[in-house]
Amino acid sequence: MKLLVIGSGGREHALAWKLSQSPRASKVYVAPGNAGTALEPGLENIPFTAISDLVVFAQKEKIALTIVGPESPLANGIVDDFNAAGLKIFGPTKKVAQLESSKTFAKAFMQRHSIPTATFASFDNPSEAHHYIDQREAPIVIKADGLAAGKGVIIAMTLTEAHEAVDTILIEHRLGEAGARILIEDYLEGEEASFIVMSDGRNGLPLATSQDHKRLLDNNRGPNTGGMGAYSPAQIISPTLHAKIMREVITPTIQGMARDGEIYTGFLYAGLMITPRGEVKVLEFNCRLGDPETQPIMLRLKSDLTILLEHAMNRTLDKVEIEWDRRAALGVVMAAEGYPDAPQKNDVITGLTEIMTNQMSTDEFHIFHSGTTFGNQDKNEILTAGGRVLCVTALGENIKLAHNRAYDIASKIHFKGCQMRHDIGCKGIENYSK
């Protein structure tokens, strides 16, 4: 079968790479892809981003199934358009995708269906937002309502910072339309975890647990980003907590959508805060796989992803089980100079070819590309082309060994101004050692 993956990041590289390993996949196209997907055996980039062009391509090539990676196409209705054209596509409709594209929609949904989350209020008027903040305590969280590419969440440690965040978003319009409305949430203490399932509209099939690292700098300092690294499994999610998350978050979400007259088909990502008391609170919903969580999850996946997707499309996810590599996986993001505010581009990346052609087994690791493109193809140059450039992902008998292997590989890759955290997975190593 021919498959199509929509997107150009590390998540899409990992998805396409895993799909290409299936004996059922004759060809995997990536739209538009990156330098990594262009070099990957069995994958082919196509230069389309407009939904109308993608529909035509899928019809012409008789694509058996399309998988949507990023949030923007979902928010723009790609699933609706593919469905209207009689094409199979895995992802939620535009209306359902508001669970991610509008935080106000998501919060109202959670309130309506008794899904645990932080206390909040929503504003488009700066004066009202300032007045609300004066009634609260710091720390406090300011969120842009719409999609802001990982830049729409500000954790204000003081009320002064909170007031400045309101002005930045609602008055200075630094986030454009994404910041036309904001949410102000109570700050939650605890440890974050990512919980991702495949949903067929009736059943939720959990993927391997994972934990990502949002802040730019070590020890969770610096600005929020799209994610600077992740590891799997997340030790914080015990079997008891796993069952609690399914019972209190995932099942009510899928069933709540059905009660609202919508069918949730696609990946469902719950960004969670696990409080010191063991409570589960939803920080955010994403209507797709996380990035960089996907990279270690796909490296651990042993099942045929095409079969899992087929069950999801047939609403039979309750009839299948997923097989995982027992080893841990960890991915460390190498980001461009200036990320996240003003990432630099077109810097030459060195070391990639040498790593992939030496004697290190690629079964133990994979370098997933995010923001890369080709320079002078005669020289086989690969250049930076975005904020997050690469995600070096490795397996190990435990998180510590996966951490060591990933960082050893990353140390051999270079480009100007590279930013990389050095503590990815350290919390997991600490928990593992207890």
Automatic annotation (TrEMBL):
It catalyses: 5-phospho-beta-D-ribosylamine + glycine + ATP = N(1)-(5-phospho-beta-D-ribosyl)glycinamide + ADP + phosphate + H(+). PROSITE patterns: ATP_GRASP, GARS. One of its GO terms (biological process) is purine nucleobase biosynthetic process. Its cofactor is Mn(2+); Mg(2+). The keyword Nucleotide-binding applies. The keyword Metal-binding applies. Its EC number is 6.3.4.13. Pfam families: GARS_A, GARS_C, GARS_N. Residues 107-314 form the ATP-grasp domain. Keywords: ATP-binding, Ligase, Magnesium, Manganese, Metal-binding, Nucleotide-binding, Purine biosynthesis. Pathway: Purine metabolism; IMP biosynthesis via de novo pathway; N(1)-(5-phospho-D-ribosyl)glycinamide from 5-phospho-alpha-D-ribose 1-diphosphate: step 2/2. This is Phosphoribosylamine--glycine ligase. The gene is purD.
